[in-house]
Every structure is written in C-alpha cells, then in structure tokens.
TrEMBL record:
Belongs to the PPP phosphatase family. One of its GO terms (biological process) is negative regulation of MAPK cascade. Its cofactor is Mn(2+). Gene3D superfamilies: 3.60.21.10. One of its GO terms (molecular function) is protein serine/threonine phosphatase activity. It catalyses: O-phospho-L-threonyl-[protein] + H2O = L-threonyl-[protein] + phosphate. InterPro entries: Calcineurin-like_PHP, Metallo-depent_PP-like, PPP_phosphatase, Ser/Thr-sp_prot-phosphatase. Keywords: Hydrolase, Manganese, Metal-binding. Residues 97-102 form the Serine/threonine specific protein phosphatases domain. The keyword Cell cycle does not apply. This is Serine/threonine-protein phosphatase.
Amino acid sequence: LHARYVLNLLHETRKHLKQLPNISHVSTCYSEEITVCGDLHGQLDDLFLIFYKNGLPSPSKSYVFNGDFVDRGKQSLEILVILFTFLLIYPKEVHLNRGNHEDHMVNLRYGFTKEVMQKYKVHGKKILRMFQNVF
C-alpha cells in the first residue's frame, strides 16, 4: 500500500480512537456471537485463518482484538492496516485493545520498527511516528 494511503489510514484511525473512552464495554446476548482474539504478533496467516473460520467483521460478526498485533512476525504492518480498516468500517463491531507490543521501545527490540523501515524506506520514519501516535 502506498505510503500516502497508510498515513491517511493512520490519521483517520487516530481521529476515531481519540473519540473513544479508555475502556471499552462490549456486551453480547445469547443470539449474538463475539470473537475474541489476541497475540497475532505479525502472523498474517493467523488473522486470515481466524477470518476464514469465523467470518469477516460485519454488523452481525463482532470482534475484540486484545493487542500484541505487532513484532516477531514479518507482516505486522499488514495486520494493522487490515484491523484499522475494519475498525473504521465497523466501529461498533470491531474493538482493538492495546497490548504491551504496541510500544515504541518494545517495537525497537522485537522487530516492528525494522519492518516498517524496510517496507517504507523513504517515508518509514514518518509512518513509524504515526503508528506510535496511534498506539
């Protein structure tokens, strides 16, 4: 995805998240399912498997992602682009909680910083700053 679109997505995601409270209250009933996921750690195949087995987020399919989206795996950036896009499309059905890997110092050690800089050489620093701002 071109850097301009990534930056635009991050800007819109930040704007949306700033309007939300620090604590999300998600409720369900017997007739409504909610899928809770955690620790994707840059493993895009895991996210695709979750969507394959449970369906894509939609008005009838809610998800809670419990952080640790990035680091360790090689496709953290792609995971965030997908999750942020679904968050903006379905703000009442997609909930993102921040994990300890959504932190600048942890990203330096476990690989997200390096991944962004390799994928976006020219605009990498700007994109990384914006990701940190969203986190």
